[in-house]
Structure formats: structure tokens, C-alpha cells
Design brief:
Blueprint: H1 10-15, H2 19-26, H3 31-38, H4 41-44, E1 58-63, H5 69-83, E2 88-93, H6 96-104, H7 110-113, E3 121-123, E4 128-130, E5 136-141, E6 155-159, H8 167-177, E7 185-190, H9 196-203, E8 207-212, H10 222-232, H11 236-241, H12 257-262, E9 264-265, E10 272-280, E11 291-298, E12 303-308, H13 316-330, E13 334-338, H14 344-353, E14 359-362, H15 368-380, E15 384-387, H16 391-399, H17 414-428
Parallel strand pairs: 1-7, 1-8, 2-5, 2-6, 6-7, 9-15, 10-13, 12-15, 13-14
Antiparallel strand pairs: 3-4, 4-5, 10-11, 11-12
Helix pairs in contact: 13-14, 15-17
Length: 440
């Protein structure tokens, strides 16, 4: 049975017709006109992909993956560039690389949706798109909030807002500069996560919200929709990533989202006494991910999560090489690896990749949650911090509960366990001592 979502576009209604009827309706349309028809957004757009009526400052689209958020953002920016000659439009992604790859050059990005008669001049070195109307779209990275301090804009498109490393700081700086013209506005497109700033936006009376599901997009392959629904339907991850639902904290979470945000610091710690790599090896090559997390002990006595280099689907040699590369990248003094899965095999594999790699094998005598509780307490006491955003790791941490359960993504919190091993070694282990001086 063909699925026809509520609010379907004219093109989707056409696609839902029997083949003979579709052919009859398209017969007689020349190829050039047909190509133009296929690019006409007014025919493709569903109800949730067109700007809402009324007096709003922020249009917030909370929707599942594949809903069409990027195409919506690109079409909105294109329409603004045509209607407001000389407009300055901010394009902000999680990183400058994502802003360019997704919002500008991607299959649903601005270069893809613009016709030849309104094609912008793209200057990658300047991070600037110049439209024939004189409007300009300027690229920014949310990982560098200060870059938004000062510039003024008429409009802004913020993509994957929930992935931003410093959403509050970036949003504040953007908002203070969103002051040109008679009606400055911002579009926020994101898969939802229960971030404090996102919750505040939802409560703001000047925010107009659109919700959407993966299944709303009739243009997605039916096999894809069926597969992801079978795999994730009904789960917390599915409710968030497919249904676009804003999931609140798990009851009894060891790392509530608010705690994670409070424990995030910007900029590198210049002096570290020790650096270790925590490793939670997979039970099999085709099983869970291999958690690989770097952490450092600062000269201030605090622990810092430095990076998440976790990998999945690799052979033992593959993930061992990833561990060795992480150790070299972060200048680690030691690798702390759980030995329960494979015992001495873990050390053998790691040494086969890099013989001089200093390794300590640890044995899990308690469950993951029991091991995680004292580490979570370090964050609560402001003795442990995240140096940046590590969304996949954070999603796993948010799923660990005091009752011993796990309600995060995947079957097992491999990244979280690797971080716990690293932090335990640095802050709670027998080798924890008064920090000395280490320069990076």
C-alpha cells in the first residue's frame, strides 16, 4: 500500500497515483519544462516545509532524519536572497566543514537548489555565497562562537543545532547580531536532543515550531523507511531520530543533559600531567563498537575528556590500529583496556600493532553502571570536564541510570565505558597521584 502522509505535496500526490495515471498526466510536457517542474519547490514542499504565517522571530523545525530539513533550509535561504536584495544571511553548522559540505555543496544544499538564472557565486576561501540580487550568505562554525560576535545579519539558518558544541554561546552571539532589516528571522533545523537552550527556544513566544517524522518524506526509499522502523521503531533512539520527538532525561540518569552542558569547557587545557586512552574492546568484529576515548589529568587536579576515537565494524587489527593512532594523536602515556572480552588477546593485538605501546589491562568485576557512578560524581563536583562536544558519547552517558540500566543508543554503552575506564585510571585509580607538569 502506498503511504500518503498528511500534508503531502502536489508532487507526492502525483507520485502516489498508479503508473498509468502518472504517465497520462505528464504526457505532453517537454523535457525542459519537466526538469524545471522537478525543481519547483512550491510543488515539492509539504506543509511542514513552508514558512509559517504570523509574526515570528525563530522558526524551529524539530524533525527526524530524512524529513527534508536541509532542503527546507536551502529553499528558505534562496527565497530570501531573491526577495531581499542586499540581505546578509548567516549559515551556521556544527563545524565550518559541515556548513560547507551540507548547507552549501550537499545534494540538498544551496548550490543544488539554485537555478542557472539565480545561481550564486561561491567563494570557498571567503566562506561566502553572492547571489545575483546582491544578497550574501556567509558561512560560520558553531564551534567558534566568537566568530559570530560582531557581524550583523538580516536572517540566519542554523543547521543541526543539537550537534553544536557550544549552542548557548553561539546562539547568544548570533541573536545579538540578528538585527538588520524590519523583520530579522532565524530558521533552526535539527534532530531534537533535550538541550537546555533548545527547551528555552520552545518556550519562547516568538518561536514557531514545526515537527516532522522520517516517514513524512514520501520520496525516501520504502525499503529504507521499513528497515529503520523495524530496527528502531518504539525505542528511545527511534522516537528521537525517526519521530523527531524531544526525549527528556531518563529517570535516574547518571549524566543528565543539564550536567553534561554545565561540564563543557571551551579551548584546550595547556598543561596536562597525564593522558590515557580508555578502551572497551568489542566481543566480536561484527558486534558492538570499540570504545576509544582519550582523557587527561590537568595540573589543576581535574580530569578532561579530550576526544572520542571510537570505531565500529573493524577486525581486531583494525580497532587495535585505531587505538594506537589515538594514543599517538593525544600523546598518551598509557592505554587502559578492559580485558574481559578476550583476556590477553586484547594486549596481544595491541602490541602486534605497536610493540612499545604501554598497556594496562583492567578486569570488570562490577557492572558498567556501578563503575560509572563514582566517575559521574566527579562531574557533579566539577572535577571532570568535557573539552568540546562528543554527541555519540554523551548520548550513551545520558542513557546510564542509577538503577543499573541502560536506555541509550545501541546495545551497549561502549564509548561511555571507555571513558569511565580512562577517568577511573586518572582520577580514582591506584596510580592517581599529585599532578606534575606536562606541556602540549
Amino acid at each position: 500500500m502506498i503511504r500518503i502522509p498528511e500534508g503531502a505535496s502536489k508532487i507526492e500526490l502525483l507520485a502516489a497515483l498508479p503508473l498509468k495515471e502518472r504517465i497520462r498526466r505528464l504526457t505532453g510536457i517537454d523535457g525542459r519544462t519537466l526538469q524545471k517542474l522537478l525543481r519547483e519547490w512550491r510543488l515539492w514542499a509539504r506543509d511542514g516545509q513552508t514558512p509559517p504565517d504570523g509574526d515570528w522571530r525563530t522558526w524551529l523545525i524539530l524533525a527526524g532524519r530524512g524529513f527534508g530539513k536541509t532542503r527546507t533550509g536551502s529553499e528558505w535561504v534562496k527565497s530570501l536572497a531573491g526577495a531581499w536584495p542586499g540581505a546578509r544571511i548567516a549559515l551556521i553548522g556544527a563545524t565550518i566543514a559541515e556548513t560547507r559540505a551540507v548547507m552549501v555543496e550537499g545534494p540538498s544544499g544551496l548550490l543544488s537548489v539554485c537555478d542557472a538564472d539565480f545561481y550564486p557565486k561561491w567563494e570557498p576561501s571567503l566562506g561566502r555565497l553572492s547571489f545575483p540580487s546582491g544578497a550574501q550568505a556567509l558561512l560560520y562554525s558553531a564551534a567558534e562562537p566568537d566568530a559570530l560576535r560582531g557581524p550583523q545579519h538580516h536572517f540566519a539558518w542554523c543547521d543541526e543545532f543539537a550537534k553544536w558544541a557550544y549552542p548557548q554561546a553561539a546562539w547568544d552571539n548570533l541573536s545579538l547580531g540578528l538585527r538588520l532589516g524590519s523583520q530579522p528571522r532565524a530558521l533552526v533545523t535539527t534532530t531534537p536532543r533535550p538541550l537546555p537552550i533548545l527547551k528555552r527556544l520552545l518556550k519562547d513566544p516568538s518561536t514557531c515550531m514545526t515537527r516532522g517524522r522520517t516517514g513524512d518524506n514520501l520520496m525516501l526509499a520504502e525499503s529504507f523507511v521499513v528497515a529503520v522502523t523495524d530496527a528502531y521503531g518504539g525505542t528511545r533512539l527511534g522516537r528521537q531520530e525517526l519521530e523527531g520527538e524531544l526525549i527528556e532525561d531518563v529517570e535516574g540518569a547518571l549524566w543528565p543533559r543539564g550536567l553534561i552542558e554545565r561540564c563543557r569547557v571551551a579551548g584546550p587545557v595547556s598543561e596536562l600531567a597525564r593522558v590515557v586512552i580508555g578502551v572497551d574492546p568489542p566481543a566480536s568484529a561484527g558486534g558492538d563498537a570499540c570504545g576509544i576515548v582519550a582523557a587527561g589529568l590537568g595540573t589543576d587536579g581535574c580530569g578532561y575528556v579530550l576526544g572520542d576515537a571510537s570505531v565500529a565494524g573493524l577486525s581486531p587489527e583494525g580497532w587495535a590500529r585505531a587505538v594506537a593512532e589515538a594514543a599517538e594523536t593525544y600523546g598518551a602515556d598509557r592505554v587502559i583496556a578492559e580485558a574481559n572480552n578476550g583476556g590477553q588477546m586484547v594486549e596481544s593485538v595491541l602490541r602486534a600493532v605497536k610493540a612499545a605501546l604501554p598497556i594496562t589491562l583492567v578486569h570488570a568485576s562490577r557492572g558498567k553502571t556501578a563503575r560509572a557512578e563514582p566517575v559521574a560524581a566527579l562531574f557533579e563536583k566539577k572535577r571532570a570536564w568535557f573539552m568540546g562536544a562528543f554527541r555519540e558519547l554523551e548520548d550513551e552517558l545520558a542513557g546510564l541510570t542509577t538503577g543499573g540500566g541502560y536506555e541509550g543508543p545501541g546495545r551497549s554503552p561502549d564509548r561511555a565505558d571507555a571513558m569511565v575506564w580512562a577517568m577511573t585510571e586518572l582520577m580514582l585509580g591506584k596510580s592517581h597521584a599529585r599532578p606534575g607538569l606536562r606541556l602540549l
